Amino acid sequence: MAKQIEVAGLDAYYGSHKAIEGISMTIEPRSVTAFIGPSGCGKSTFLRTLNRMHEVIPGARVEGKVRLEDQDLYGPEIDPVSVRRTIGMVFQRPNPFPTMSIYDNVAAGLRLNGRVSRSQLDGIVEDSLKGANLWNEVKDRLARPGAGLSGGQQQRLCIARAIAVRPQVLLMDEPCSALDPISTLAIEDLISKLKQDYTIVIVTHNMQQAARVSDRTAFFNLAAQGQPGKLVEMDETSKIFTNPAEKATEDYITGRFG
Amino acid sequence: MTVQTGIQPISATRRAKDRLVQALVYLAFALAVIPLVSVLWLVVKNGAGRFDMEFFTHSMRNIGARDAGGGAYHAIIGTLEQVLLASLIAVPIGLLTAVYLVEYGEGGRLSRIISFFVDVMTGVPSVVSGLFVLAFWILVLGMSFSGFAGALALSILMMPVVVRATEEMLRLVPRELREASYALGVPKWRTIVKVVLPTALPGIVTGVMLAVARVAGETAPLLLTVFVTDSINNDPFNGPQMGLPLYVFNQTILPTDVAVDRAWTGALTLILIVMLLNLVARLITWWRSPARRR
């Protein structure tokens, strides 16, 4: 189910502004890869290029290669909609659909793609909510609006919604930055559980979080404001946090800048 | 000049200014409400006299200016049919235009041109839309005066209002919701239909109702397109029809008290119809929303 992602020489632009430059990396299946780096260094932009969400923004474009196993995601014959169906995403701010109930939110991905029966759907919704550690809290009120949940519950609802379509990769863009420590812990536990089945990539500003949840860590930086962001180094998380190869990485994780 | 530092009590001049501005705001509010309340009051007071069964079940056929009785049944039917037809034409076109402008146009050349002409249409005087339909539909194409011709004129007036209101509401839908849907592998058109439009629905309904309210009270375009009749004509596609604003207009220009009373009741009926439509639309949106299940 989980698949490997390979990126080679990737540049991303907003209009004429180059946001990231020359990024190459391999993201291993069934593991958690964390992206860290100062604000504006392009880690969120890079994350969004991995499931072709970057190009949703008017004027945005990408150069370079992203491969999922043996498929080129930016190949001319590839349907971006199917890419996003295969590579799911969880956003910084919880964004359940406000017009839908809890049940409908989880079912949204399948139902909007129109391909399941009601009984199948019931099973998938239950599995997904269980997978997101939310089932026990909401099983008695599935018909209530998703927007009525607390922030942490909403974020787990969004994770349930993302895994309901059975993606192979799950991208998370600072999924805990709007949450309190207890909800954060719940999500981190969830990430450790999900990595048995999915390839997970997480952007975070919280270095303890990167150290806690990830297997490999990539450090991004930019030379100066207005310059494109670059990948400085990527390695085992334990190595990055104890014995990084680059001086900039060490300065960043020890809090000397950023 | 010395600069005051530290924590100070509110100075007397600031307090006075605050009072003054507050008083001005209340005054402005009262000034704005007076005409509204007085119109409502007058219409209810003067319209109550003929607010009876005969008014809602009879037409003006064979009833002269001096005769008591008579009703607006033909005009009510006409207004309902014309407004319904106008909405059937204007709402889908307006909605789709707004969807194009917000979701697909992205500030391109075509969307700027459309946007410009929507603004131009907003400024078209209502009589001009009537003249256009008269000149094009009736004189050039040789169609007869009919409720449908009136509906065409009204739809020209409705369209820009629907476009603008829908556009505003669609722009208020957060980007994140669209992205959440894209990230689930939902195609753009389904995202618009299933996520964006439902989220904006209450606002769109309000906008459509405002447009309905605006055209329901139009007299000039009807005068040129539906002609005028005292008889009941249920078929909006054939022969002259009546409309409530026309009915009010026709009765007020008659010199008798009974006619003027009919005009007041006609005005009251028009207000009630618009109010009722508004209520129904709100009930429907409320019934469709998840808030009901809370």
UniProtKB/TrEMBL annotation, chain A:
Organism: Microbispora amethystogenes
TM annotation in the entry: none
PROSITE patterns in the record: ABC_TRANSPORTER_1, ABC_TRANSPORTER_2
Protein name: Phosphate import ATP-binding protein PstB
The keyword Transferase is assigned to this record: no
Domain ABC transporter: 5-247
A GO MF label: ATP binding
Domain of life, source organism: Bacteria
UniProt KW keywords: ATP-binding, Nucleotide-binding, Translocase, Transport
Pfam families reported in the protein's UniProt record: ABC_tran (PF00005)
InterPro entries assigned: AAA+_ATPase (IPR003593), ABC_transporter-like_ATP-bd (IPR003439), ABC_transporter-like_CS (IPR017871), P-loop_NTPase (IPR027417), PstB-like (IPR005670)
Keyword Iron-sulfur set for record: no
UniProtKB/TrEMBL annotation, chain B:
Residue intervals passing through the bilayer: 23-44, 83-102, 114-139, 145-163, 195-216, 263-284
Cell compartments where the protein resides: Cell membrane
Domain spans labelled ABC transmembrane type-1: 76-281
Keyword presence, DNA damage: no
Lipid bilayer topology: Multi-pass membrane protein
Pfam families in alphabetical order: BPD_transp_1
SUPFAM superfamilies given in the database record: MetI-like
InterPro entries, per the entry: MetI-like, MetI-like_sf, Phosphate_PstA, Phosphate_transprt_permease
Keywords for this protein: Cell membrane, Membrane, Phosphate transport, Transmembrane, Transmembrane helix, Transport
Keyword Transmembrane helix attached: yes
CDD domains per record: TM_PBP2
PANTHER family tied to this protein: PHOSPHATE TRANSPORT SYSTEM PERMEASE PROTEIN PSTA
Role summary: Part of the binding-protein-dependent transport system for phosphate; probably responsible for the translocation of the substrate across the membrane.
Family recorded in the similarity comment: Belongs to the binding-protein-dependent transport system permease family. CysTW subfamily.
Name of protein: Phosphate transport system permease protein PstA
Taxonomic source organism: Microbispora amethystogenes
